[in-house]
Design goal:
Elements lengths: L1 E5 L8 H14 L5 E5 L5 H7 L7 E2 L7 H10 L4 E5 L6 H7 L4 E6 L3 H16 L4 E5 L7 H10 L14 H8 L4 H4 L4 H23 L1
Helix pairs in contact: 1-2, 1-9
Length: 211
């Protein structure tokens, strides 16, 4: 089982949304079974999953203390991917979650405040010797700032070519336990999520070969 941790110091960058969407993307691609885990005290990912009618991806309640053991049990149960949401702060508890990751995805909005905040998240992944990449989220269409943000992020690590744009359907889909992939599978938002999942899957495969 491969463990993907969504981490970012800035709140509102889209960690919960991406965790849910990537897990569903993997399931729809036939690459599951997948399991979601929520280490954010706000419990937004758990609340989203509780509103779903589809049982997949699965959800596994977990505490930080039991995370390593729970991951081993889920691996033994045959899950292919675990997606872990984290709170928007850099603490020792988040470092312990990142230490369990096979891959760390850092959602980043194309704003000066978000770009200034990526340093600590990157340092955390590097210190734990975990492969990571950035995903630009909530981007405005045809915005010069998005291009500038991707250029700035590329100085610190790999940036996903799949950009998640700021569209109402992302927020709307999360209200009732669905994703844009399930609301409009042929829409632009669904296409972006599918591309991002392909990127994440490829990076995990590359990092596994490197190790």
């Amino acid at each position: 089982m491969k463990t993907i941790v969504l981490a970012s110091q800035k709140g509102g960058a889209g960690k919960t949304t991406l965790a849910a969407h990537l897990a569903v993307a993997a399931e729809l691609a036939g690459e599951g079974p997948c399991v979601l885990m929520d280490t954010d005290p706000q419990g937004s990912l758990a609340a989203w999953w509780n509103g779903r009618t589809d049982e997949n991806p699965k959800f596994a309640p977990v505490t930080l203390k039991e995370l390593p053991e729970k991951l081993e049990l889920l691996d033994a149960a045959g899950f292919a991917y675990a997606f872990i949401d984290t709170p928007p702060a850099i603490t020792e508890s988040i470092r312990s979650v990142v230490a369990q990751a096979d891959f760390v995805l850092i959602p980043t909005r194309p704003s000066p405040h978000d770009l200034r905040a990526v340093g600590q998240t990157v340092e955390m992944a590097v210190t734990a010797h975990r492969p990571f990449a950035f995903a630009v989220t909530q981007a405005k269409t045809n915005s010069r700032l998005t291009v500038q943000a991707m250029a700035a992020l590329s100085e610190h690590g790999v940036v996903a070519s799949a950009i998640i744009h700021d569209r109402v359907d992302f927020a709307a889909s999360m209200i009732d336990g669905r994703t844009v992939l399930e609301v409009d599978q042929k829409g632009r938002s669904a296409g972006e999520v599918t591309q991002l999942w392909q990127f994440v899957k490829a990076r995990i495969k590359e990092s596994t070969k490197a190790r």
